[in-house]
Specification:
This protein has 262 residues and is mainly alpha-helical. It has one domain. Helix content is 84%, strand content 0%. Helix 1 crosses helix 6.
Length: 262
């Protein structure tokens, strides 16, 4: 029993230390934002643009394919399971509820974690092991401003774009599946979608992009910058960053859903 209590206490202590260090990293990055109006703005912008290109632009084909298929599957399952109940007229409502509110943001975030979160953690861990982070400090460059802040901005901007793109392709996939099963006009389908969308649904897209994107960048960058002296810690940092990000976005999504839609 004593060992159990001691082990539990050590885990709680480690968790609190990690939370404090992550909060400190986020606080330092937010405090460095005003400095972007100075000479550092160009340097940070270049890194952020590269991050948006890798995280957002290069993920569009994969995101579009998954969104198109999921939109089609949602509509097909609804028509198959609820045939004869006039569900064709509510296909847009089903897509809004299932995709725009929940699946779209979550799957887009998972794609960002899988493609870019691992890369962030591995890249920063490698830079830490090579001493490049210390070299930046020696040259008078703020590592938080140069390494973390652009990736935070890039993750948020990219995730917002991917969420919007996911919703559009899911709607297209839903109509493609609907057209194979019924003769529902496109106008009726779009009217159903627009009628089901609420103002809070639209407001949650940028809100979730900031929340999920910030959580992914913070978790993965923190794990990458926290490695020790062994190269074997690079894959561990990537794995821990991914796990922390996944747990974080699902917990955050559950809390948001309960607060907004309950």
């Amino acid at each position: 029993m004593r060992r159990f209590v001691e082990g539990l206490g050590s885990r709680v202590r480690a968790g609190l230390i990690t939370a404090g260090e992550m909060a400190s990293l986020l606080s330092l990055s937010l405090r460095s934002i005003p400095a972007l109006l100075g000479p550092a703005s160009g340097m940070v912008a270049r890194v952020a643009v590269r991050q948006v290109f890798f995280t957002g632009n290069q993920a569009l084909p994969l995101t579009g394919l998954i969104a198109f298929l999921i939109g089609g599957v949602v509509v097909i399952q609804a028509i198959t399971r609820l045939s004869g109940l006039g569900v064709e007229g509510f296909a847009g409502d089903l897509l809004v509820i299932a995709v725009l509110r929940e699946l779209g943001p979550l799957i887009a975030a998972v794609i960002v974690i899988g493609r870019s979160g691992t890369a962030m953690a591995a890249e920063l861990a490698t830079m830490r092991l090579r001493g490049e982070v210390d070299d930046l400090e020696t040259m008078g460059i703020d590592p938080v401003q140069y390494l973390f802040l652009p990736r935070l901005i890039g993750a948020v901007v990219s995730l917002f774009g991917l969420m919007v793109f996911f919703d559009l392709l899911a709607a297209l996939g839903g109509y493609a599946a609907l057209g194979l099963q019924t003769t529902t006009p496109l106008r009726s389908y779009l009217t159903s979608i627009l009628g089901a969308i609420q103002a809070r649904d639209l407001a949650l897209i940028p809100a979730k992009a900031i929340l999920f994107g910030g959580m992914i960048a913070l978790s993965c960058c923190y794990r990458g910058l926290s490695v020790g002296d062994s190269p074997t810690e690079i894959p561990r940092a990537a794995t821990r960053g991914v796990v922390m990000s996944l747990v974080g976005i699902f917990v955050a999504d559950s809390i948001v859903a309960m607060m907004v839609y309950s």
